Amino acid sequence: ASASASASASASASVFAASLAKGSSSGSAGGSARSGSVSKAKPGEQGGIVAIVQGLFSAHEDSRVHTGAAAEITPADSGGADGGGAVARGILLGPFGKAGKVKVLFPTSASAHVTEGAAVVLLL
Fold this sequence. Notes:
This protein is of the alpha+beta class. It has one helix spanning 2-22, and strands at residues 33-43, 49-54, 70-73, 88-96, 101-106, 119-123. It has a 6-stranded antiparallel β-barrel with strand order 1-2-5-4-3-6. Strand 1 and strand 2 form a beta hairpin. It is globular and about 30 Å long.
């Protein structure tokens, strides 16, 4: 079980690196965004910070179809995706539980910004 967890975490780290390398931009042309907030954050198994984010999806939506989408922590005074710019960028890993919460992986360098209550914008 430990080997598969390690392989899964390694795959997540690879997806994270590939997503950032693509340089998906904030406010992509014709894209939409959803807003939520960090309910919990913890160190990832293979590095990075895994945030549990609420408010991006309802319990009835399938968040798995958006796995790999860019997510941003926004400054508290920016009002979301429309202004201020992101202070940290991560990627959606997948669902967490059954209440519409999701896991988002952020780089370790963003740990000061990935705090409980921080505003998160998912770029679709």
